Amino acid sequence: MKVLIIYHAGASLNARSIFNELASIDSITLSVIAPERLKVDRVYDPTGWLRCIASEKTETYRTFSVPLRDPTNYQRGFQRQALRAAMKTVEPDVIHVLDEAYSGYLFQVVWERLTVCPKAKILFYGFDNLPLHFRLHSSLKWRLTWNQISGGLAANSECLKNLREVGFPKRLPLERVFWGVPTEIFRPMDKQSLKKELGLNFDHLVGFIGRLSPDKGLKVLIDAIRRLPESVHLLVVGSGPMKEELESLSIRSTLAGRIHVQDAVETAQLVKILNALNVLCLTSLTLKKWKEQYGRVIAEAMACGVPVVGSDSGAIPEVIGPAGLIVPEGDSALLADALSLVLFDDKTGERLRREGLTRVEEELSCKAMARKLHGFYDRILEAQNA
């Protein structure tokens, strides 16, 4: 089968690992359309930009670098003629738009497909798990659009549930498939040597990696650290509006010397940092316009053999499954208890380390994601021929 993936972050290292795994499946010939350049948060790329270079057909997959109408807002879609030319070149059996079921990308591709490659089956892949509310004209627009596609997938179950509630056709299949982490990159390394190399030579090191903003529950995490013995240190890595506040706490509070703040880093350095941790913590809070959609760093930490503790916000419990500890969001006392259990109970820490590695291999790796995508594509095409 000829598969065409369209993804705004298709030039990212994580995405390329997923595409390589998918392209390695014998029955798939894969092509990818990605923006020529796209402005992103520095958490996702320290330069603030993702850039894609077009490739010739390689042993894995072919990449088409297509300019956006607005590189600072991918939702405005691609420049039309360049998109149509790439779609026509591929003549795909399946077009998989890695974006929400109500995205500008999906809308553009659905209606261009009618004249460029009308036999192709279109799918989406979403993350958004907030309740959906459409005005009448928007509801009609998306019902018409969804009637032109063949199904969809999402990184969490709540995303799919919300779509059904606003009228996504019951006849179309929906399935949860976790976003993959590249295990050839995120893998266990020697913890003690990395602690020494990175200047993080603490016996009990808790880590937070991601966007430094209130919705991530960083104040809850800091309060939990206050409740733990002085041997417990917190490493915060990322960028965002709370960075200055965190840096101030690291030098002008009762936690001075126990909080360590670093800027967002490249992937190779991130892997080292993860491996130096004794536990990774994601303490996200549910707000009116936000709840955790996935928490990719959870999978990355588990792939490195690092135990994880998360709040019960959004998709976090679903991603962690039985391979980590879950606490009620906003409860710093219970969070401190969970961190203490992982840090000071060797049996618990080792159990979570092993279960995390197993869960990544079976559910959260790029290879697992590619295998499940392939199965979904097969079922879509088989239904067409039935």
The largest sheet, given as strand count, sense and whether it forms a barrel, is: 7 strands, parallel
Mean pLDDT: 94
Helix content percent band:
40-55%
The separation of the N and C termini measures 16 Å
Quaternary structure annotation: single chain
Instruction: Classify the fold: give the CATH topology of the largest domain.
Output: Rossmann fold
Q: In what range is the share of β-strand residues?
A: 15-25%
Secondary structure category: alpha/beta
Structure description:
The strands form three sheets. The protein has a seven-stranded parallel beta sheet, sandwiched between helices. It has a six-stranded parallel beta sheet with strand order 12-11-10-13-14-15, with helices on both faces. It is α/β, with parallel strands linked by helices and 386 residues long. It has two domains: 2-180 and 365-385, Rossmann fold (3-Layer(aba) Sandwich), CATH 3.40.50; 191-364, 3-Layer(aba) Sandwich (Rossmann fold). The radius of gyration is 22 Å and the shape is elongated. The protein contains 14 helices and 15 strands. Helix 6 packs across helix 9 (267-276) and helix 12 (332-344) packs across helix 13 (346-364). The model has no long low-confidence stretch (mean pLDDT 94).
